[in-house]
Write a structure and sequence with these properties.
By secondary structure, the chain is an alpha/beta fold. It is built from 16 helices and 16 strands. α3 links the parallel β1 and β2.
Length: 357
């Protein structure tokens, strides 16, 4: 079981920032920087400035702060703390961040991709029983070690705990042990990257692929990426708990967020049970990476899950509660299955998957 007293004794990055006498600089602009500025403001923690990689500076101003180069700050400030405000998954960028961390105190705050609330020490204690239940369900030592390191990172913001929670992406596919007769439902197929990974691990052999992607621009790229493949069904809709439609912001990135104002588009939403309804072909493997709607997508798949008992690969990092709420819900549906936790290399603690086989 999780050691509650040990976790309770960990230094919270909020407390570290509140108590330090060192100036605090944010590395990066955009949504992550806005969230960090809001967190600092809520806790009456001053921000000394913002800096960006040299190629993004160009005399810019963000939220009233002139954007600096790191070298400028290093030349004028003897010691300071850096808060990372963006995600990094490319090795070259992660290596650059590691290099900065060797020279300066670096904290990588854990912030939800979707929704509000932080995974603070107080939040951990409030949900300790749920976290401990998930820990007890995990099928191997790597999963338990990964889960513990993720919790430690979320509290402390420390790079060491974050790096300790990483596992190689191949680990996920080793656990899934995909065969050549899989019926694969890819929920959140983006531009076809996860379909390509699936094909690479099945040698290009499969029985059927059903790929759902809501973003029209991404869907066009997805369609191009599977051109020429047989037995592939593409669905330009969001995966959800109910059939209908949702309003989402226009945009071509990986994530299009639900919205009710501004430039928006209506997107169809379908349950996976509906998409697969009327067929007896079943489903052997489902991947869920639907940008914070995983709980709803799972609810819309209950019929398929209970009937066919497929392997599952579920993202559990978009919302603060996902790290415990989603594994517990999955276990309630498939209590006899084994559950593993793996996290692909990236900063911060994104790309966390609950794998059920």
């Amino acid at each position: 079981m999780l050691d509650k007293s040990r976790l309770s004794a960990l230094p919270s990055y909020i407390d570290t920032l509140r108590e330090t006498k060192l100036p605090i600089f944010i590395y990066g602009m955009g949504d992550g920087c806005l969230k960090l500025l809001s967190i600092l403001n809520q806790h009456s923690i001053p921000c000394a400035g913002i800096f960006a990689s040299d190629e993004f500076v160009r005399d810019k101003v963000f939220e009233g702060h002139r954007i600096h180069r790191l070298s400028e700050i290093e030349d004028s400030v003897p010691e300071f703390i850096i808060l990372l405000a963006f995600g990094a998954e490319y090795p070259q960028l992660m290596d650059k961040i590691d290099s900065i961390a060797r020279r300066h105190r670096l904290i990588i705050p854990d912030m939800p991709v979707v929704g509000d609330g932080l995974f603070t020490k107080e939040y951990m204690l409030e949900h300790f029983d749920e976290l401990d239940k998930v820990y007890s369900l995990l099928a191997d030592d790597i999963s338990r070690r990964t889960y513990l390191n993720i919790i430690e990172y979320k509290i402390t913001g420390e790079l060491a705990a974050l790096k300790a929670s990483q596992t190689e992406p191949e680990e996920t596919y080793r656990i899934l042990n995909l065969g050549k007769e899989e019926i694969y439902a890819d929920l959140g197929a983006y531009i076809g990257d996860t379909v390509a990974q699936f094909l690479a691990h099945t040698g290009g052999s499969f029985k059927k692929i059903i790929a759902m992607e809501p973003n029209p621009r991404n869907f066009r790229k997805l369609s191009q990426s599977v051109e020429g493949l047989e037995n592939v069904g593409l669905v330009n809709a969001a995966a959800g708990a109910e059939d209908g439609s949702i309003t989402m912001r226009k945009g071509g990135g990986r994530m299009i967020r639900q919205a009710s104002d501004g430039k928006v588009i209506e997107i169809p939403q379908l349950r996976l049970d509906t998409v697969l309804g009327g067929t007896d072909c079943g489903c052997t493997y489902i991947k869920y990476d639907v940008e914070g709607a995983e709980a709803e997508a799972l609810k819309g798949s209950v019929g398929t899950i209970l009937r066919f008992q497929p392997k599952l690969n579920v993202s559990i990092y978009h919302r603060t509660e996902d790290i415990f709420a989603l594994p517990l819900y999955i276990n309630s549906l498939l209590p006899e299955k084994k559950m593993y936790i793996r996290r692909a290399p990236c900063y911060p603690a994104w790309e966390i998957s609950a794998i059920v086989v």
